[in-house]
Amino acid sequence: MAVRVDKYLFAMRIYKTRSMAADACKKGRVTMNGQQLKPSRTFAEGDKFSVRKGPITFSYEVLRLSENRLGAKLVPDYMRDITAQDQLELLELARLAGQSGRDRGTGRPTKKDRRDIEQFVSDDWDNEIDTWEDDED
Q1: Nearest Cα to 22, choosing from 46, 49, 4, 3?
Q2: What is the structure's pLDDT at 123?
Q3: Could you tell me if 6 and 67 are in contact, meaning their C-beta atoms sit under 8 angstroms apart?
Q4: CA distance linking residue 74 with residue 5, whole number of Å
Q5: Distances (CA, A) of 83 to 17, 58, 79
Q6: Average confidence (pLDDT) over 45-54
Q7: Does residue 133 surpass a pLDDT of 70?
Q8: Among 41, 42, 61, which Cα is nearest to 51's?
Q9: What is the pLDDT confidence band of residue 114, given thresholds at 50, 70 and 90?
Q10: What CA–CA distance (Å, rounded) separates 84 from 87?
Q11: 2 and which of 7, 42, 66, 80 could share a cystine (Cβ 3.0–4.6 Å)?
């Protein structure tokens, strides 16, 4: 039995839709033995392939075949992740870089902060104008 690449990538939850899997193949992000795979090519048991997502290249081995989308708990029975350690370190560095952002409350004000500031300023100006008009009489 053989399964189309786009169907397998969708079934193994590497991509959310089959069309996303086909687009990744067409853009050259799915490779096997250094060659780009077309969506219509087929996988067999024992094949090893790579998927490039952003700066990281994930590598997998086909253990069993399925055309139907599987539950997340069943995926390890059908596919093994053989991604190199250096690629996993890149993933961890990217994750840490995303967390090193600005602390809450620092930097530019949010929309709510802006509205609060405008309300505070407008209330004070209205009160000051009223008192100035009363002083002139």
Answers
A1: 4
A2: 65
A3: no
A4: 19
A5: 22, 5, 12
A6: 93
A7: no
A8: 61
A9: confident
A10: 5
A11: 42
